[in-house]
Amino acid sequence: MGERRAARSSAPKDGDRRIGRRALLIGGAAAAAGTAVFARDELGHLWWRVPGVEKPRKEGEVDFTGARWVSASEANWRRADRPDDYGIDMVVIHVTQGSFDSAVKVFQDPEHGAASHYIVRKDGHITQMIRELDVAFHAGNRQYNERSVGIEHAGFVERASSFTDEMYEASARLTARICARYDIPVDREHIIGHVEVPGTDHTDPGPHWDWDRYMRLVRQARTATARADGEESV
């Protein structure tokens, strides 16, 4: 979500393609043209969208321990098998430009056309609405949607009071865990704001979002995560 530089409206979907006979034949056509590698990758991306094909998943399962599951409308995300079909190498930080409850409501609205994987509340509560393995329509850029996890923060870009200690700390732990899971570098090239996504007109997370503080917290949480994972493997 977030504030646009012009009038606000729901974010556009990511130009989702519909699977069909032509798409399924792309492998043979591309191979004949000498681009078999491209065809294999393309079919891998499309495979999970063939009717009747579905990766096993448990209803209500979350990717971040402690998160509460509330499902977004299926119109606001695309089924995938990440990171096997699309590699994940980025986290995109958003601000909702509204309350937590309003964000949940619009992400459940099939007419909205957008939703993020997570929403973080001012008190640090985290709700997951889309599985990380699926592509959420959150960045307004198809390629960035496919390669990223989107995290919304309930509040307003023009209000510094929106960003509490509890929110920063909970969000940092979430981002650190995502970075650990997909081996994402903890830096500003891979943890970005919605405003930094090419082709979008959003301004979030805005001037009151303390990037220095946030990145410091993510690094601390990432170190703690690595230490805990190492202890568990002993």
From TrEMBL:
The keyword Zinc does not apply. The keyword Transcription does not apply. It comes from the Bacteria. It comes from Streptomyces spongiae. Residues 77-206 form the N-acetylmuramoyl-L-alanine amidase domain. Its EC number is 3.5.1.28. SUPFAM superfamilies: N-acetylmuramoyl-L-alanine amidase-like. One of its GO terms (biological process) is cell wall organization. This is N-acetylmuramoyl-L-alanine amidase. Keywords: Cell wall biogenesis/degradation, Hydrolase.
